[in-house]
């Protein structure tokens, strides 16, 4: 008997099935997070987004994005970015104390919301971000994988999910790879699943804000007619609070 090889079409099914599960299993949590963010917007707070390694791709998705929130401040350290040194970025995420340094520079208030993106959710940097923010009275949203955390070494003694106000579970399997399904060694799904979760949140937030009569500060693409003009007021409002806006 011959075994048919897994094809890239099958991989598409794997991803679509995964995203369906992510949407279904996070439905209630997404509503809770949307309420937290809406309350922050109403209080003129900031949405701070953080991650390390490839989770910084999720941070980039939240910041200065067409259709995205203008009240987002990304928080990070250059050492956490793999392009600045792949091995050193792993070391930085495992170093205790870096989270406190980054949060001091960013500032944090009770009417803000901190998002921490970390699929494994076990290294000191993401865990300490959550602990410090919670101690400061700031709500923490963990975007992580509960399954991956359960099998990863607890380098911080606890996990990101255990220190969060709300958990959004990207359902990423330990090791992140998804292909071929019988013995996965490639095609990491964490970036896709996490970006999907963030945009599911944006949809819920938009609907809740519309129902409440709250105008969200949303960027427009700079590459459409009127985009620069529409963004000018948002830049004036947030540039002093978000240094990364330049």
TrEMBL record:
CDD domains: SIS_RpiR
Lineage of origin: Bacteria, Bacillati, Actinomycetota, Actinomycetes, Pseudonocardiales
Annotated organism of origin: Saccharothrix carnea
InterPro entries: RpiR-like_SIS (IPR035472), SIS_dom (IPR001347), SIS_dom_sf (IPR046348), SIS_GmhA/DiaA_subfam (IPR050099)
One Pfam family it belongs to: SIS_2
PROSITE patterns: SIS (PS51464)
Gene3D superfamilies, per the entry: Glucose-6-phosphate isomerase like protein, domain 1
GO molecular function terms attached to this record: carbohydrate derivative binding
Domain SIS: 33-211
Protein name (Swiss-Prot/TrEMBL): Putative phosphosugar-binding protein
Single Gene Ontology BP annotation: carbohydrate derivative metabolic process
